[in-house]
Specification:
This protein is of the alpha+beta class and about 425 residues long. The chain is about 30% helix and about 25% strand. The chain binds adenosine monophosphate and glycine (GLY).
Length: about 425
């Protein structure tokens, strides 16, 4: 392929995150054709959706071959943790494919909390003190609680869609959490090990990098709002809104993040011989101005991506494509907008627990000064857009003032109507001075 040629891209996933990535890539100068699998209604308006189950390797491979895909972006964690990248790169039929997203070993940073904690300990990356226990060590785990002060933080080792973390006020609750992870088998394989860690008190934020394992580019910093209720109350969700940038994450703080967290993480990966090409999402907590890692993710966040993508001025696809060569990626720069972004999630009433689907969504066409990213929505045979998931839409707004970006968002949220629509009223408001 010549430098001037355009490329075909496939994005895997179906959330608001993937719509936002597709939206950004669709504006690239070097894009020929864009495909999303399985995608959602939003991605179908800017790309070709292909209905694929992400565990169907044969279909993924055939789609790549048939559509002459040059670059693949793996959006969600599950195919990464399951080793999709490894499978594809061991396949001689598609050996030139550029894959954004780590192999199985790198994805363990997200796929196993025990692995991630051990890694951080080995490479002196600041994180909460911890111990891990297997299912045969339940009584040792309970004894360990008595060496800590409340609240107690107990985590299932593997992927649990954000539901595997228990913050317990007292020993009794903590013992119940241990029992429920180990013995009620709610988490399957993910709950055969646990991590118990010290509680850190501070303010959370998310830092994202794109790396080829050698150099890295820092993407816009974001803060997401994980709980379902206003004022960070109620159950944990995938995220009910986000803002970017995060006012307290100034250059001084970000320099500390680079020195104490990003740099040693990449050095650690190199020392462990783990190749890593993709995004790393550092879930951080600032404790009195010092960053600690709460968790690693091997992908972009949802809904953080819905505020990150609109703040990248430069061509993201060019940056991703430059990863075909170590020196080319290193030379690239990323231009980040000074604008402030907010995104507010409109969810189906009942989420993150039981909710109904199939309600007609009205009002999207009335919005002209926000971007509507779709997640759980679909179009029916008679052309109606209906709800089709827990998190339905993300309304992203930009302005040179943080407060205005939030105001515009809420003005437009009110234009959208569907039955049992729920959203948090306080996204980003804690950061207004
Ligand atoms: P995780 O899935 O590991 O990101 O944890 C989910 C949420 O639990 C985080 O976003 C934090 O709000 C909270 N959390 C996890 N670990 C800790 C900790 N050690 N101290 C305080 N809060 C924590
Ligand atoms: N918003 C948090 C996540 O994507 O895991």
């Amino acid at each position: 392929m010549k430098n001037t040629d355009k490329i075909n891209v496939l994005i895997l996933g179906s959330g608001g995150r993937e719509h936002a990535i597709a939206w950004k890539i669709s504006q690239s100068e070097i894009l020929e054709k864009l495909f999303v699998a399985p995608g959602n209604y939003g991605t179908s308006t800017i790309a070709t959706n292909i209905d694929i189950d992400l565990i169907d390797y044969k279909k993924i491979k055939n789609t790549i071959i048939e559509n002459k895909i040059h670059l693949l972006v793996i959006g969600p964690e599950l195919p990464l943790v399951n080793g999709l990248h490894d499978q594809l790169s061991n396949d001689n039929d598609i050996k030139d494919l550029i894959i954004i997203g780590p192999k199985k070993e790198g994805a363990l940073l997200e796929g196993s909390k025990t692995f991630a904690k051990k890694f951080m300990k080995n490479y002196k990356i600041p994180t909460a003190k911890y111990k891990s226990f297997t299912i045969n060590e339940a009584s040792e785990a309970k004894n360990y609680l008595s060496t800590l002060n409340p609240p107690y933080v107990i985590k299932a080792d593997g992927l649990a869609a954000g539901k595997g973390v228990f913050i317990c006020k007292n020993i009794h609750e903590a013992q119940n959490a241990i029992n429920s992870i180990f013995f009620e088998s709610k988490f399957g394989e993910s709950g055969k090990k646990i991590v118990i860690e010290e509680f850190l008190s501070g303010i959370e934020l998310s830092v994202f990098i794109l790396t080829d394992g050698h150099s890295y580019k820092i993407l816009p910093v974001a803060k997401d709002y994980k709980r379902i209720g206003n004022g960070d109350t109620g159950l944990n969700t995938g995220g009910m809104g986000a803002v970017s940038p995060v006012t307290f994450a100034n250059n001084f703080f970000l320099k500390k993040v680079e020195k104490k967290i990003i740099y040693p993480t990449l050095e650690g990966l190199k020392k462990e011989n783990i190749e890593y090409k993709g995004f790393i999402f550092f879930g951080l907590i600032s404790v009195d101005g010092d960053p600690f890692v709460i968790e690693y993710n091997a992908r972009l966040g949802d809904p953080e991506t819905q505020v990150i993508m609109p703040r990248i001025n430069s061509d993201l696809l060019k940056l991703l494509y430059s990863m075909k060569s170590k020196s080319e990626f290193k030379q690239q720069t990323i231009d980040i907008s000074k604008l402030r972004a907010s995104t507010i999630i409109l969810s189906s009433g009942g989420y993150p627990e039981k909710y109904e689907k199939g309600y007609i969504i009205n009002g999207i066409d009335l919005i002209n000064d926000s971007i509507v990213f779709h997640a759980g929505s679909k179009i029916t045979k008679d052309g109606q857009i209906v709800t089709n998931g827990g998190r339905v839409l993300a309304i992203t707004s930009l302005n040179d003032k943080h407060e205005e970006a939030i105001k515009i968002g809420y003005k437009n949220v009110k234009k959208i109507k569907f039955k049992d629509c729920y959203y948090r009223q306080d996204i980003g408001k804690d950061l207004i001075k």
